[in-house]
Amino acid sequence: MSLVHCSLSGLGRAVGFLREANHRFAQWFNRVTPKGLYPRSLLIIVTPMVLLQSVVAFVFMERHYNTVTRRLSAAVSQDISAVVALYGALPATDDHAVLRRIAWRDLQLNVAVLPPDPLPPPGPKPFFSVLDSALSREIGQKVSRPFWIDTVGRSNLIEVRVKMDDAVLRIFAQRNTAYASNSHIFLLWMVGTSLVLLTVAILFLRNQIRPIENLADAAEAFGKGRDVENFRPRGAREVRRASVAFLEMKRRIERQIEQRTTMLAGVSHDMRTILTRFKLELAFLPDNADTAALKKDVDELQGMLEAYLAFARGDPGEQTSLTDMGALIEDLRQNAERDGATARASFMGPPLVEVKGEQLKRCIGNLVNNAVRHADTVEISGTRDARWLIVNVDDDGPGIPEAKRDEVFRPFLRLDDARNQDEGGSGLGLAIARDVARTHGGDIVLADSPLGGLRATVRIPV
Ligand SMILES: Nc1ncnc2c1ncn2[C@@H]1O[C@H](COP(=O)(O)OP(=O)(O)OP(=O)(O)O)[C@@H](O)[C@H]1O
Ligand SMILES: [Mg+2]
């Protein structure tokens, strides 16, 4: 029982280890491989190509080239052993003229007979020479006498010396008769064709990947509320399908926004007509406390309606343009000072941002107005980095309790103490501000401010 238990827990540990290793490997792999689709596809093409060619080249070098070199050096060694045999058989007259003539004419070997000095010490072995080792082995087998060879050096000759009893034979052979020397042509062909292949692949891939990049750009621009210009479905079938689906989705969203806007505007307009009639009728009633209260309510209702109309209209027409955020924030600061608050403003980073300037000013302006209404000190601080434009509006007022920070964004919602203050205000400010931030692809969040009040943060991707 305990044995089974032991082996089971061992197995469990092994599986856990494997899973962990696999996870690590996947993480590492993700880190080292490039992130873009283009380099990834190139890698998918290039890696097998390089692998294949390396294997082929290695096998070729190892097998073919070695075999050929061995055969060739065997032939040269046979020639040399024939020369050695001839030396013994032919008469040593006239400085071995016959031997040298036969060797030169029939075997292309240049033979000289030297005095019987000892052989030179073995020269340095070339580090990676198939020729040297093959030739040494072959000569050692064919000629059973001491010998010395020199295959080093750039000349196209190789030198072999064989020690005879009464002399030393010095033999020069052509290097290319002992050596498969033109194998680099094979490598050249291989590298050349793969370069051509790579060029073709790069060109083709470019064309396949551009439509995907265009789709990504279009979706990103639409998400940020920017114009999507000259985007057409192109490329492979799947990419085209995704593009068509994106365009359909975009059209549906736009239609929905338009429908919402016209409906809200229609409702508000109808109500305004009735309200005007109501006011007119009120004007004919005698002035007393009841009618005064009624008039005040009607005025308030009309104020709300106006605000609502503005909200429903939502300036859908505004296009994005390069806006100087530093100047925009400074402008809002001056407005806040004019309204009687102590205001500070700062901006860090490149100030020119591609946004709908008027709407964004309204968005941040609403936050500043709230701060001015509820607090004495306002601080507007903007930062912009490679990805985000962030604007914080801080105040030292009472703030908003955490539980209420979601619901204050609802249209017409005003918290109780604000309602009691009775200072105009329709409860649309935050709703409009969030609407604007969201059409830019961003959002607004509320938090505690280091100044003690509320911090409203606008975050917009750039
Ligand atoms: N800086 C703030 N400090 C404290 N409470 C706030 C602050 N900003 C907003 N609030 C609360 O959130 C509520 C909703 O704000 P919102 O801006 O949407 O409406 P409003 O300011 O009352 O009206 P409007 O902005 O349309 O004039 C406010 O009524 C107020 O109670
Ligand atoms: Mg407000």
The profile of the biggest β sheet is: 5 strands, mixed
* N-to-C series of helices and strands: HHHEHEEEHHHEHEEHEEHHEE
User: Which consecutive residue ranges, at least 5 long each, have pLDDT under 50?
Assistant: none
Structural class call reads alpha+beta
End-to-end gap: 65 Å
Determine Rg (CA atoms, Å).
Answer: 45 Å
Strand line-up of the largest beta sheet:
6-8-9-11-10
Summed up, the helix count is 11
Helix content: 55-70%
Features:
about 450 residues; alpha+beta; five-stranded mixed β-sheet; four-stranded antiparallel β-sheet; 11 helices; binds adenosine-5'-triphosphate; binds magnesium ion
Question: How would you describe what is shown here?
Answer:
- The structure is a single chain.
- With 462 residues, the chain is α+β, with helices and mostly antiparallel strands.
- Helix content is 58%, strand content 15%.
- It has 11 helices and 11 strands.
- It has a 5-stranded mixed sheet, with helices on one face. A 4-stranded antiparallel sheet has the order 1-4-3-2. Strands 5-7 form a two-stranded antiparallel ribbon.
- A hairpin with a 3-residue loop joins strand 8 and strand 9 (388-395).
- Helix 2 packs parallel to helix 4 (130-142), helix 2 (37-89) packs antiparallel against helix 5 and helix 8 (325-338) runs parallel beside helix 9 (357-374).
- The two termini are 65 Å apart.
- Adenosine-5'-triphosphate binds at residues 307, 366, 370-371, 374, 395, 397-400, 408, 414-415, 418, 425-431, 453-454.
